[in-house]
């Protein structure tokens, strides 16, 4: 295929048409194997990339070389079952176990571990974090319900504060 520019109107078209598709100007006939400029019709040497008379690019007239081969690029991608499979080995297993332990005991460390596990990409580890957070929320809700119904008196919280502060004397 040769792309030609009409010298009369400037429109471009390929060589399957003998005439310009915009104005009807007739293109000069090009013989196969000759490097004739599609714009001015001047014959050019075989090594020319541009017309030596008017400068029109002749690169579209080059036929592709059949002896060149293109080797495909092969990209190998390995798929793992879990995104955090390297972290999931020993550290995450122990963290999950300690998370359950601290969640059942009702400590703040259990809440921190549960939130950390929820932020992981592995759905299995995330599931354990959600379960630990549910245990923690269950204990907080249970304490709130027992306090609201009067089953836990207010002195229990006062005694707990004194125990935490190191004052072991009861009021």
List the keywords.
171 residues, mainly alpha, two-stranded antiparallel sheet, 4 helices
Instruction: Please give the share of residues in helix.
Output: 25-40%
> What gap, in angstroms, lies between the N and C termini?
101 Å
User: What is the number of beta strands?
Assistant: 4
Q: Which regions have little confidence, pLDDT < 50, spanning 5+ residues?
A: 62-67
General shape: rod-shaped
The largest sheet is: 2 strands, antiparallel
Overall structural class, as computed from helix and strand content, comes to mainly alpha
Strand order of the largest sheet: 1-2
- Percent strand equals 5-15%
SSE run = EEEEHHHH
What is Rg?
41 Å
pLDDT averaged over residues: 74
| Number of continuous helical runs | 4
